[in-house]
Amino acid sequence: MSGWQPGPVQPPDPAGRRRLDQQPSPRRAAASTAALDLTDGEWHRLHPATPLLKGGIVFVVILGIFVNNAREQLLQFFIPGPDGHRGGGGGDDGDPVDYVLNHGLIGLVLLGIAALLVVIIGIFYLSWRMNTFRVTAETVEVRSGIVFRTNRRARLDRIQGINIQRPILARVFGAAKLEINQAGHDANVPLAYLRSASADEVRSEILRRASGTREAANPQTGSVGQPGTGVIEQRLNEFLAEPLGEDGQPPQSVVHMHLGRLIGSAVLSGFTLFMVAIVVAVVVSIVTTGQYFLLFVFLPTILGSFSYYSRRIVKSLRYSITSTRDGIRIGWGLLSTSNETLPPGRIHSIRLSQPLMWRPFGWWEVKINRASHSSTKGADNQANTTILPVGSKDDVVRVLGLILPELVGLTAADVQIEDGLARGEFSAPEVVAAQPQRAVEESTRTLSLIEAGMTSAGSEGGFTTSPRRGQVLRWFSWRRNGFRTAPGALLLRKGAIWRQLVVVPLPRLQSVGVRQGPSCGDCGWPPRAAHRPGADRRQHRSDRSAGRHRLLRDRGSRCGRRGAGRPDASLARRRRAWRRRRSSEPAAGGVSGRRAGHRRTLVLPVDPSGRRAGHRRRALALPATG
Amino acid sequence: MTTRLDLDGATWTRISPKYKWPEMGSYALSGLVVAALSAFTWFSGQWWSYALTAAILVVTILVVAFVPRRVRAIGYQLREDDLLVRHGILFLRFVAVPYGRMQLIDVNRGPIVRALGLSDLKFVTAAASSAVTIPGVPAAEAEKLRDRLVELAESRRAGL
């Protein structure tokens, strides 16, 4: 409480949930220092309600079994039927509840259940006692387990993201689950559960340490529990409150989700097509054969579809995305909420996609690829990688506007600055000052290229597409399949029916492959795949002329260069080499000149059309020894 | 096949020709096993059951006969910034992995491969789809290559 000072920290809250006139209560002050206590490097226990929350499912199961077996009796109890007590045949019908009732064993059974509960609660209590965590200046460490002890330590500078989940039950108790995502499968560090308010503080404290600013935490800046006189009121405030951003302000989302659009996007999904097909099949089978068996086969699927729709809609209802000092923050969920923060530099690629049926409305979905795997399930029950479930083109632009500056803008700006420094155009301090602005400028250029590429086809928007003869293999998409370079990124455009546009930042390219199968052997357009992190995902496959290919592969590998000491220097060299190459790329069928005196010399005998005899050997980009 | 992809002026380091023996052996063995399994269909007394076995044997012989050619097609080169690996005759595959992207390098030695004094190298990047293997590298060379690549990867490490 030592660092706490009452001051004009609370901004006006339009919702009026906060009381500006109220003096900070001792409870509030305690809350604001809670995070400091939790991140002071000592071992701490989790929220006292943790055993109940973790064990909640067990209680529900037991209750469910009980209710399921005793439903007759319960019905009888609450709504006495006209025929009085249903005469059980001495337990002969095998109903355990009947058996118990008829043999006077109620006491014994209740005792047994109570003993079981005590044991379970005891185990959960023990596991809570043994489950401790600490946050030091460099690591976060969790110890857990009674018989099998586990100890997981994660470096703060390797954090891929922090997710705060508040399941509905936990929200009632004012608890939250903090999950620290690390790269790799099953590499997350869960802190379940923390007090709701301190979870926000712990997150911002961890992220602050992770970003390298070791400044002493100012307790005022952290978000704190709403001031409230009583526990109930405080809970209610927490429950109603928006997930807090920094400065205790509810973050302003750049995208506002409309219910109508959400419902529309769910209804107009591929899943609906599937459902319609099933319904048609069922109806046809009933009409033609008079048999109802298909109906029973598919009934669970049809019923399950409603849960799919409702989950999809409820999950995205309070969607929000904001840019905070710690990174991009995405909020989900109406009742059970989750709130994820992605620090800068943790996004590996972006994928925009548009199913066919969304096209009339101009809706798009944005997904990202990253190295960690959040345990939050997405609407489709897959690992959640969506950052914009559905949005208009404007929404996409706004979301990308948050992501791109640090994803591709910085790379591009570094390149420019290196170029400028090399030419002696400006001095180092100027560079430092200009960098953020340049990053934004460059990302704006990339963004305009992305916008142009979202719906374009052919060479429109500067994309290199599959040659016409690729039509044999890609009937519809050969004109749309294409790639182009943008400042700091590679844009992959594909899909004529399901439109997609993938943005891969150059520093994130892992490897580039070229494949040529027998069918392509004589036509020179082998499929290409650029590999990015992420489990076994082939980002892009399309047909290209061999020469473009070669260029790309060579280019891609150049992207991997990064000096250990000064990563940006090689980045710049790479970019320069790349631009040079682009400028030496002939428009059509030409031969570019050699450019001597550079690090790389390129010879590009290109015949993109490939029709001229004697030009069977197409473009070759030769990395000369420099 | 004149349009096959290749890099001009590039000197590919070929893997050891000895690698064809374990490859041929394993293909021949699996072919024989499948042929033996198909022999059970002879009990049906149908003419096609014999044809099936014969077909399997012919395919096996063809595959084995092409192994030396396929082994010769496997090559790699250490370029300035990346490791370039090529595989295949009919289905060509080139993969370029920048040194800085390599996460770890495996050296595997099976019993037969070891008897011939060879090693298999496997490179893993952060993308599962871009795992690259170079089989049949002479053991001493494999160790050297691994150390060299680790060194290169270390000096050009790019953060994930």
TrEMBL record, chain A:
Domain YdbS-like PH, chain residue ranges per copy: 128-205, 316-375
Highest taxon listed in the record's lineage: Bacteria
Protein's UniProt keywords contain Membrane: yes
Keyword annotations: Membrane, Transmembrane, Transmembrane helix
Compositionally biased region (Basic and acidic residues): 533-546
Residue segments, region Disordered: 1-28, 513-626
InterPro entries reported for this sequence: YdbS-like_PH
Keyword Membrane (UniProt): yes
Transmembrane intervals: 105-126, 262-286, 292-309
Biased composition, class Basic residues, residue ranges: 547-564, 572-582
Protein known as: Membrane protein
Annotated organism of origin: Frondihabitans sucicola
UniProtKB/TrEMBL annotation, chain B:
Coiled coil: none
Domain of life: Bacteria
YdbS-like PH domain ranges (all copies): 72-149
Keyword line: Membrane, Transmembrane, Transmembrane helix
One Pfam family hit: bPH_2
InterPro entries: YdbS-like_PH
Membrane-spanning intervals of the chain: 24-42, 48-67
Protein name as it appears in the record: YdbS-like PH domain-containing protein
